[in-house]
Specification:
The protein is of the alpha/beta class. It has one domain: Transcription Regulator spoIIAA. It contains three helices and four strands; from the N terminus they run E-E-H-E-H-E-H. The chain has a four-stranded mixed β-sheet with strand order 1-2-3-4, covered by helices on one side. Strand 3, helix 2 and strand 4 form a beta-alpha-beta unit. Helix 1 packs parallel to helix 2. It is globular. The mean pLDDT is 91.
């Protein structure tokens, strides 16, 4: 009996879109958050201001919210500004429910 083939989820990546500008694409979930945390911290380290566009995010959960909050806190402690554009509805809803929405602005 042949196993049904399961399609791999789309790749998740953070890519530079210009000086201080990044595009996040794919799934912003528990399985990708730890890797993205390290990638983001390395990418943002030399920047004074960072804009992350999340229009390419296809799925997000509470781990994705935690990732964005951690990037925000790390940026603030380093004297860096970080802004998010096109937040997914899941992130906005979770941030509102947890009363942390202002931390993403």
């Amino acid at each position: 009996m042949r196993r049904a083939e399961v399609a791999e989820p789309e790749p998740t990546r953070l890519r530079a879109a210009g000086p201080g500008s990044y595009l996040l694409e794919g799934r912003l979930v528990f399985g990708t958050a730890a890797r993205l945390l390290a990638e983001g911290e390395a990418a943002f380290a030399g920047e004074r201001g960072v804009v992350v566009d999340l229009s390419g995010v296809t799925r997000a959960d509470s781990a994705g919210l935690a990732l964005l909050l951690e990037w925000s806190l790390t940026a603030r402690s380093a004297g860096r500004e970080i802004r998010y554009r096109n937040l997914p509805a899941e992130i906005t809803a979770l941030a509102t429910l947890a009363e942390v929405r202002t931390l993403l602005e």
